[in-house]
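Page 47, continued from p. 46.
Same chain as before, 366 aa.
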Amino acid sequence: MPTARPRIDRFFLISVSVLTAFGFVIFLSASLGLLAQNGASFGTVAMKQAISLGIGVIMFFVLSKIKYSWLRKSAMFILIAAIAVNLLLFIPSLTLHVNGATRWLNIGGSLSFQPSEFLKIAVIVYLAAWAYFAKDRMARMRYGLLPYAIIVGILSVLLLVQRDTDTLLIIAGTGLIMFIVAGMPLRHVAIAMVLMGVMVGGVILVRPYALERVKTYFNRDADSQGAGYQINQSLIAIGSGRLFGRGFGQSIQKFGYLPQPTDDSIFAVAAEEFGFVGSIGLLAMYILLASSIFRIGNRCPDIFGGLLAIGVSVLIITESFMNMAAMLGLIPLSGVPLLFVSHGGTALIITLTTMGIVANVSKYAR
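Result:
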């Protein structure tokens, strides 16, 4: 008697589909704000995002067909490839400089991509594979804390040169949670957190832009037309939405007032148009997606698949919540996108690719 073909978890698939569709709708509305900017084209930006969405959907279905155990066998090569791509940023002729940061590789014409996005999934795959290899030895420093510290050290070199402290913190935090689940003892966790704290403190002291963000967080009115301008305009947009919002496409702040309405500030545009109720609904979508992935990880028959799903869930929820919290003034401003929503082809493609990996894991969950 033939066995039933494994299927993607339905709850997870619905969560991904709804968030992706709603995110694209929000992006289209925010993109209308580009009409108020010189040299910006709504049609061009919308088309690029649509193409990235299409590529991401294709990658989702491709990865959902490839058994996730293949990633464990290729984990080292995936990590080396991601590091190699990021090393290309050290070649000046290949890089693009935006707002003082060097995070993008120019691949011809107006096409570019952000290689740090590849690091996110590569590190998750590698750490999950390492935990599978180490198994019951994670409590020993040489199998837990030491490899974690080496990986974070390599990432620090690659990402701090790019002035991408936020991505470093997200990946390091995600990896630490994965190792905690895998059995890293609390005393080693404490050491790792202290080292991360020292690193963040050092960045704040030696990088003027980081220190400025912290100062603005504590006193955003000190330079309301300078460093505090974005957060002040964001709070105005969010407050203007009130309970039910101005309505789809009716945001005022996106027309020349709110910096980067399709990127870092897109949550403020969504809150202005859909209000408190809509913002809670968007937040609920992320929570439902994360809970569905955690559920898949918990039911996975092996530690590699389980940690892979948990790592992706932590990454999605951490990065997205950091964006929303920054726009609400709860944490210092960050440069991380609102996943599934913000403009950024690389981030959208990689996000949907990771969802495809989780989709495959869900096929084998109990």
